[in-house]
Design a protein that fits this description.
With 255 residues, the protein is α/β, with parallel strands linked by helices. Helices cover 35% and strands 26% of the residues.
Amino acid sequence: MSDRWHTEVLRSEFERTSQTFGERTKGRFDDLGVVEFSRVSAQARVLEVGVGTGNFLSLFDGRSRELVGVDLTPAMIQKAHASFPDFGLVLADGARLPMGSRSVDLATTAQTLHHIWEPLPVLKEMRRVTAESGKVLVIDQIAPERFEQAIAMNELEMMRDPSHASSRPPSALRTLMGVAGLRIVEERIVDLKQRFSNWMPSIEFPQDRIEKVKEFIDQHGDTTGMNFERVGNDYRYDRQRMMILAERAKDPLAG
């Protein structure tokens, strides 16, 4: 699968869901203590790669000097601008950021890397635009370390959302950060209990896709490591997110 093809799938899927996505994901990060974890200052310039409808970036509103977001999807940028007109929002690719080197104090991305087949160029760009004393913050859902479970989880995720590329285990994210020239300062894994009906609401997803995913869960859910449990007509399942705070490594070869 080419990156160009997947980019078009990603853009198409998020254009389709732009009217409901922001409301469905509102509050997703509110209880994670993101601002405190990021160690951001009140004078910071904060960038989010994959800003979507702006919910995550808004956590820094009033806590930092300037907020900038980039996204591939025009409809997402439009929704973000309607909700947060004071944010600097740009239609751009995270692998080719339209920003100068060392120009932001905190470069962030949240729930975005699992939509990217090759995240290393994005992480390298985030490092490039981060100031010498700045930080890079990555938050993403993770897969189990057990290979068979990770494969099954990603099969399910791609069935649900064609724009999904790969949820990665913690060890893979740590490796990516290091190869990108970043040194991890702090990390945290958050365990969450979630509901299928909130993950795949009928207002946002085609009914035939919902039924296909439910069938997969009934037949193979126990292989995903997500601990699906039927609750009436719904399911409860486990989700893990990893928060990684990093700084520029001191390796001069990293760029």
